[in-house]
Structure formats: C-alpha cells, structure tokens
Amino acid sequence: MREILRAFGGPLSLVIGTLVGFWLLILVAVPQVAMLDYSLWSQAANADLSAAIDRAYAEATMAEFDRRAEANPAKATELDEKLTALKRTIAELEAAQTSPPKTYGLQNYTRMSPLHAYIFVRTILSALAVAAVALVVCYPIAYAAAFAPTPRRAAILLTALLVPYAMNELLRVYAWLMIFDYRGVLNSLFAAVGLADLEARRWVPFLETQGALFTVMVSVYALFMVFPIMNTLQTLDPHQIEAARDLGASAWRIHARVVIPHAKPGIAVGVITVFMLAAGSFAVPQILSRGTGGDWFSQLVYRQFFEANNWNLGSAYAFSLLVVSLAIVFAMMRAFGVSLREITK
Amino acid sequence: MTRRREAGEAVLDAYVALFLLYMFLPLGVMVIAAFNAYPDPSVTQWHGFTLHWFEALARDGRMLAGLRNSIFAALAVVALSLPIGLAAALLLTRLQSRARGFLYALMVSPILTPGIILGISTLVFWRNFGMAGGLLLAVLAQTSFIAAYCMLIFLARLQRFDATQVEAALDLGASQGLVFRRILVPFLAPSMATAAVVAFLQSFENYNTTVFSIGGDWTLVTEIGSRFRFGLTPAVNAIGVVFVVLTVAMAILHVHLGRRRRAHG
Amino acid sequence: MRGTDVRLDHVDVTFGDFQAISDVSLEVEPGEFFSILGPSGCGKTTLLRLISGFQEPTRGRVLIGGADMAGRGPNRRPTALIFQNLALFPLMSVRENVAFGLEARGIPKRERLARADALLALVALEGQGAKKPGELSGGQRQRVAIARALAVEPAVLLLDEPLSALDLKLRQHMRAELKAIQRKTGVTFIYITHDQGEALTMSDRIAVMNRGRVEQVGRPEELYAEPATPFVATFVGEQNVLIGTVAASAPGEAAVDTPLGRLVGRTANGAPAVGSRAFVMIRPERLRLSDGAALAGVVSRRDLEGPFFVLHVESGDTRLVAHVPNSGAIPEPGARVALAVDPADMLILPEGETARA
Asked: Which residues cross the membrane (chain B) (predicted)?
C-alpha cells in the first residue's frame, strides 16, 4: 500500500484504487455474490397465493352481501368485524404476492430435474470432447503454420486462418446452418446424386446429430486452438526436428518425443480455452439446433431467466455451470502443469 | 528417406487445403446467398444475382439502430475498460508477490468465466437497485471482462518498462502526475491504441454476455441473434459480407500503412 | 551552482533480516569530489539512494547543507542522481531530456529549452538537441545524463557507476571530463564505484565500504599508503599478504614470524599484542631484486606489463608478486632470486578480512 502511494502519489493512487475497486467489486465480485445469493432462495409459488386471495375476496363479497341484508344490530357488528378481518387478510396476502417471503436453502440446486442434470453432464462432457477434437484437427495446422517453408507461405496461411473470423460468430454458425439444414447445401448435393429426395422429405437430418454441433463448434473455436500451439511451436528450433530425423526417428516419434512435448503449454492453453468457450457456448446451439439437436446447458439457463422467469433457479444453474467449468479448467491447468499467467498470455 | 519426407509434406499440404476449405466453406455460402434473389437465404435455389438485400439492409430501421447501439456501447466499453485496465496494470507492477498473485487471479477471472454468466450476474446484481437489463447493463457486463484484456495488454507493455526512468524523473523534481503524463503515458501510447481496438471489437462482436444483460434494448449482434427466431432474409447475409469486406479492407490498410512506415524509416 | 556539504549521522538501513548499512557516519565537504568505493553488495548503492531520497534510513540522519532530509522525497532534495543505466527518457529528444527537470519546476518552455542548449554546450553536445537518446553514442548519452542532472542546479550530484557500461578508452576520457565538469561547476560530486582506479584518479577523498560499513575515509594517496584495515589494504591496489604471529611489538613497529622468516615492519594503529595473528602487507612495486638474503624463492612466472615485469616468486607454499622495472637483466622462470624490501614498506595489520580471500 505504502509502495503504491510512493510510486504514484496521493491523487493518482486514489484514481487507481477507485478504478480497480469499481471493476473488481462492482463489476466482477459482487455481481457473482448477488447471483450466488439469488441461487440460494426461492419464493412461494404465486399460483397458491392468488387462489387464496380469490377465496378471501369471495368470502368478503358474501359477508358484505349478508351484512347489507342483516337487520339485527348484534349480528351486524359481528359481520362488520368479520369483514375488517377479511380485509386485513386480503391486504396481507396481496403484500405477500408482490413480495413473497424468501426461503433460503439449497432447494434450487437439489431440485434440478433428471433431464436437466443429464443435459448439464452432457454439455460438460461434450465440451471436453469438442476440445479434444479441436486439438486433433488443429495440431497439424499449427505445425504447418509454425514451420512453413517460407515466411510468405506462413503469412498467407495466417491470413487465410483469420479471414473467416472477420464474420461475427453468429453469422458463421448461421452459414453452417445453411449447409446442414434439411434443405441445405449438403442435402441438396445428396439429392442431386439421388441419395436424398427433398420433395418427399427424405433427407439426412444432420442438424439432429451431435456431429453437426461438433463440426460447427470446432470450426468456430479452431483459431483459439491453432494460435497458442503455433506460438509455442515457433519457439522450437527446427534444427531439433532435423536432428531427430537425421538420427532416424520416424515422423510419429519426432512428434511424440520432440514436437508435442515442446508444444505442451500451447496445447494446454488451446484445450482449456476451447473447453471454456464450448461449455459456455450459447450462440452455436441456439442457432444450430433450433430445439432439434438436443439442448446445451446454456439454453436451459436462458429459458429459466427469460421464459420461465425463474431467476433463482436460473442463477443456481448458472452458478453450477461456473463452478464446474472453473473446476475443470483448474484441474486441466494442474494436469498440464501450466500457470494462470501462461493461460492468459 | 527424402521420398518419405516429401510424401509427408504432401499429406500435410493436402490437409491444410482441406482445413482451409472447412474454414472458408461457411464464408462462401454466406456471401453467395447474400446476392441470391431467392427470398430465403439459400445457395441451392438460385434465382439470379441481386443487390436487393444490401438495399433492404440499408432500410432496415432496427438493424441500423442496432448498429448505432453497438457503436455507442463499444465506445463506452473502450472509455471504461482503458482506464480500468491501465489502473489495474499499474497496480500490479507495484505490488509484492502475495497480494499480486491474488489480485491477478481475480483480475483474469472474468476471462475464465463463461460469457453468459457475466451477463447473468450483472443482470441479477443491478436488479437489486431497480435497474433492468438494457444497453447500460450490457456495457457494464462487457467491461467486466474486456477490462481484463486491456489490463493484460498494458501489463505486457509495462514489463518492458525501465522503472529507473520514473526514479530519474522524480529525482529531477517531477511530481507523480508529471511522471505519469510525460513518461508513462507516452510509453504506453502504442498499447493504448491496441487496447482500444481490441476492446472495441470485443464489445462490438459480443453476443453471449450481451444477450443476457441487454433487456429490451438491442445491438447489431443481438438483433441478428433474434432474427434467427423470427424469420430471416438474406439481409443478414449482406451484413456478413459487409463485415468481411470491412475487415479485409482494414487488414490491407494496416499492412499497407505498416509497410509505408517501415519504408520511411 | 554551489555545492553543499552532506552528512550521514550513524545511519542504519535494514531490509528484513539483512543489514544493508551499519552505523555509517560520513562528512562530505562542499564542492568535493567524493567517491564511495567497494565491492558489489557492500551497500554503496543503498548509501546513494539514502542521500538521493529513494531510501529512508532505519536509524540515523541524513543532512544536506545542514538540513535534515527525513521525510523529504527525491523530488524535494537538492540532489540529482545519475543512474548506472543513465535512465534517459527514450521517447523525448535530448533537449527535452535535459529540460525535463526545469519543466518539472514550471519554467516556461522557451527559457528551459534555452538553458538546456547552454548545458548541452557545456558537455560538448551542441547541435545534438533534436536527436533521440537512442541515436547517440554511449559517451554522448553519458554527457546528456550529466547535463540533465546539472540542469536542476543540484547542490549535490550523485553518480552510480555511470561509466561502467563504456569501453576502456572512453571510460578514461570520461574520467577526465567528469573531473573537469566538477571543477567548472563547483557542485559536490558523490561518486559510487567498484573500480579503484576510477576512484583513485578522480576523487578528492574516498570512503571504502565493505559489508555495509565504512572501513576508511581518506585522500587517495592516504588510502594507498596508510590503509587502516586489511580489507582496504587489499581492495585498493595490489598487495602481497603474509600471515604470521606477532613476535615482538613496540609503538609504530612490530616483528612477525611468517613462513618466510621473521619480518620487521611498521604498524598502522597501536601496537599489536605479542602472540596475536597479523598480516604483513607488501606492495609489489616495493619488492626489488637484491643480492642479499631477505626473501628468497624461485621465479615461477614472468609477465611483461610494458614499463615493468610482473614476477611470481614461490617459496614453499608462499607466493610473492613483485613489479620489477623493465631494465637490465630480468630473471627467467626457474631462476632462484632474492627479494628485498625496506621495513618502512612492510605494513603490519591485525588479521582480518581481505578483499581477495
């Protein structure tokens, strides 16, 4: 603290402290706490309350009707008291309806339906699989880019990799939808050679397969795998590969013993990044599946918030996703032996 | 042995070509459909070349408003993220190991957090103060992680900063403010430009965080997202073409300017 | 510009468990060229940071011009520091660099640039003001740093081994130049170095430091001729060190039994106790070839240094180094020689730490 003051002086330290405090507290930490808080309580279902209110109103109407017909003053006073009590009950119920009492507990976490739990697990496992597939697909590309025979070819390859990313993620996914759709590019090609008949609705339902989802996710996140691996490979002296080859090592052995060990930090960064993006992916499944290819967990979260309007359950879902994906990220960091600093390079 | 090696290289080249096809296929489909007169986005039902969808896009009020909102939000995010990222980086360079490690982890945590969760937590938090989702919340939610990118950019530059320059300036009687203005800011100027561009693009392109915090407002990207539910016309493809053309043009300009600057010494 | 005095009064600096400076007291005269000489890690840089204000003492006081500097930051002290790496501002022109201290004092642009140009003339850099520091040579950058420091008219100029990055020729040239600038300006110079040659040639006085303590303060010739401790004796100039036991002791004189026999020499401070361990120090240039008995041995190596030969003479486990004038017959390796030395050139010091242990 004193170090900061000495380095920047009072006014500047204050500005720095305010900005960082605003960011880390107001924008980062406290919202997460608020989300956690939301996930830990629930309110009585409104349906029960409104029925009770309806009942009380009916009773009050009856009592009022009786009161008007009643001539006996003693009975009338009794009815008056009953009416006042009913009105109080109604006011209480209505107050409860606008702000029902919160019940704190883990109910939002324990109440996840088997289907939702299944989708949650499937999302996490699929995200891991996407990362693995992306690694296999992208490793040769990173290798080719890092060891391109001429700088010119390397530059062309890099540009070629970057251009498709000029389009927004949503549009890229959407383009894939046009390819995989029932009447899309692929099925039209199939129809042209007689493998499908679009008129008879005899087509290949690509969109209902996990394969289409994987194809699209890998294509959308490929760059996040290629670049870190390429960056670490560029620091590998090509002479090492030549020396290994000179010593008679096979291509497999060269990769297994020389190239991959060197690329490990980059591979770790790529796998972790792609896993994170896939686990939290929203645009890809939303656009691609249109509800046919099975849900991704992020879509369930979205629906809890904006369709079921149950923010508490939605928060619990979101928090579960956060904790599990962070846990897996840290587990992978340990397994690969990379630090936070390397991940964020 | 050399023959085997050449064969290996040929396989790799073929694979690279295949991969590029994989990356460019959606791009091609997107672009072709933008010029197709068929009313649904398609490349298989070719009804003739048209520029109609670009025209339609130019008249699409919601898209244009979305573009305005996107630019406004991106500028706001830049205006917030740059000073925050700079302050955070400066703080980190002056801290001792323990506190530094903890703060660093906290600062990069938004990058490791799924985007939708940043949007959700912002939405939930501000509801306690009666603020509903909207452009402002989207800006705050985006800033939470974009500031981290800016911080990392500044930190990388500051690691190459010679701290004795600050001592020299103080020794010559400079106030901390003057040191900041005359020594630190000029040194950081190139990374400020980088951070501003990164922040702007990150904000402009963002969907996951924004869609959860935007409420009834919309940006260009969330508008595209909602069109997928409520009927699409190839005007969306036209946007894609505009994106690609703009980006490629900027890239060419960047390379060109870089070359000229180098030529001039 | 007029230099002022600098006084350190029983100063301690500790970093955690490490005591960087132990009970240092120094008095630097106004307008003096004062060097602090010591091996790396001896605390001399800490001492400089203490005077410039980047470091506060754990105990003791720092006074400049009689004023206590406690709590005054580096930007509020009448000192200017020249950093080891110079720390020029790479993005500013040379003129702006020199004018920076004046800018910090709110002096209008035209005036401060004019003064910067005058200072650039003083350090023989006229017409180079528009360049960036990166476009200058090492020696020129050195002079920019000096001009920049002088621009704020400091009473005390602190220099942290500023010549260490230069090559030998340039270093020797810059020594003369620094000395000349100091004479011209009258500013108090406090110069940090580990290079005894630098300290001996430029300084009015030198403080020799070791392990956070000042071992001795004195004029260069004093330090060379009358070192107070074995460390100073061996750090400043070359030295033959013979270890032995004091056999007899009288004021100003003692006899020590060494592997080369009993040697009688002068003592520096007080009489060492008989029976205690002591060093006999002999400068190589004080040993001369003789016919008499004295110190006998075999030449093991002979190196020509130009004006003199360096003879390595071995006798049992003891090795002596002698500088012999390059005239007449010089013994070849393998030859038996005898070396003579006057008792006045043998200094007897109590056993202690030496610089080349």
From this structure: 12-35, 71-92, 104-126, 132-155, 183-204, 235-257
